[in-house]
Amino acid sequence: MASLLGVVAFNPNRANAGIDPSALSKYTVEGDETGTATRLRQIEVNKNRPEDLENIAYEELPSGVSFREYREGKGEAVVKRGSKVAVEMTIRCKSFATAKEPGGMTYFSTKEDTEFNEVAWTVGSGDLPPGLEEGMMGMHRNAVRRIELPSTAVFAAKKVDQLPLPTTKDGKRRFESLFKTDATLLLEVLVTRVK
After folding, report:
1. DSSP letter (8 states) at residue 100
2. Across 25-34, 45-54, 132-141, 158-167, which has the greatest mean pLDDT?
């Protein structure tokens, strides 16, 4: 028994029986009706692209919303009024920048705060801030933008419950603190679907 415990303690993180899990992502998945395996392959292909690290100037819109386009995306469909879209999104409080998060502390992330790792809605429905939608106009599928919403737009969206709400304890705390200071938000958006 002592030797068995010694083996477990020696290599506690090894539970893959000598199989390289990353190699499994290349195999087709029989019965992948949900498309999960396909989506995971798409994410793997699209992450850590060199062009995502370029320092691109913000384009300012007349409303005060500004954005940077990091990746243009592809496809015929573009985000416009009435489009049905789904996005992966992270929302940062710009005024709460730290050494660990220089772009601002994250208060909402689809990865942590939603069941399906995305938010879906119809553009113009009033579900999300109009400034976010304005900053997304013209985006294609797989496009990535960082959209900056000024405090005035954020406060207006909060009054009519248009801001995505966090589900984590830290996210809720940051969300409540946000409205005691400059409430400028940085939204990092990846369009996963657009119709």
Report:
1. S
2. 132-141
Neighbours of 23 (CB within 10 A): 8
Amino acid, res. 112: E
Q: Is the pLDDT of residue 92 over 60?
A: yes
pLDDT at 74: 92
CB-based contact 110:89 (threshold 8 Å): yes
The string of DSSP letters for 173-184 reads HHHHHHTTS---
Between 15 and 168, residue with greater pLDDT: 168
The residues near 166 (Cβ < 8 Å, ≥ 6 apart) are 107, 108, 112, 113, 172, 174, 175
> Rounded to two decimals, what is the model's pTM?
0.71
Sheet strands (E) in 74-182: 84-93, 105-109, 119-122, 144-149
For residue 158 the two structure tokens come to 């909060």
